[in-house]
Design the sequence.
């Protein structure tokens, strides 16, 4: 957030990070270096390029609140070189497969169509969209992005947001299929 990254590059960085540690041992690599390299690589993949100096300074400020930006000394250049080398390692470990399909576009589509189904009053009085987006952002803290398809995650966060506020989709009881199966035919509740 402090780097001004948009949602998709952040999601890509999180996915790269989780995927890298699924392929390797968590104890073998510094997770903070991998995180900085994931952010750097995601910026390239999603065409929101970030300077390594900015990533280093934001990370330094996060780990040492109140500290000054790093001087351009040997420590800075070593850290910069480590990020670049880690990026190359990550690309090799992930077999250069660093482009992902994220749930964001699905969730946007689902929210727009659901807004048309619901009456205006229930949509305006409950922050369903805000909650669904927050749940989607929070889902990247773990490995959900690797275990489930993007469409399924989008439906799940929307379903949970509706459950949180007790909002029912009109005519759901009379319908042949639940509303969420219209979006993803291959999804079932346990």
Sequence:
């Amino acid at each position: 957030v402090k780097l001004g990254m948009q949602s998709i590059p952040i999601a890509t960085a999180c996915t790269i990070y989780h995927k890298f540690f699924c392929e390797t041992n968590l104890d073998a690599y510094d997770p903070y270096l991998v995180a900085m390299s994931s952010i750097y690589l995601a910026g390239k993949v999603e065409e929101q390029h970030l300077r390594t100096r900015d990533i280093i300074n934001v990370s330094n400020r996060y780990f040492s609140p109140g500290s000054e930006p790093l001087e351009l000394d040997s420590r800075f250049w070593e850290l910069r070189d480590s990020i670049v080398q880690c990026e190359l390692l990550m690309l090799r470990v992930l077999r250069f497969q660093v482009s992902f399909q994220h749930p964001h576009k699905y969730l946007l589509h689902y929210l727009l169509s659901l807004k048309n189904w619901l009456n205006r009053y229930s949509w305006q009085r409950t922050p369903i969209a805000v909650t669904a987006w927050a749940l989607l952002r929070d889902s990247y803290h773990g490995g959900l992005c690797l275990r489930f398809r993007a469409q399924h995650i989008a439906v799940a966060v929307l379903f949970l947001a509706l459950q949180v506020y007790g909002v029912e989709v009109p005519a759901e009881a009379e319908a042949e299929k639940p509303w969420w199966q219209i979006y993803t035919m291959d999804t079932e509740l346990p």
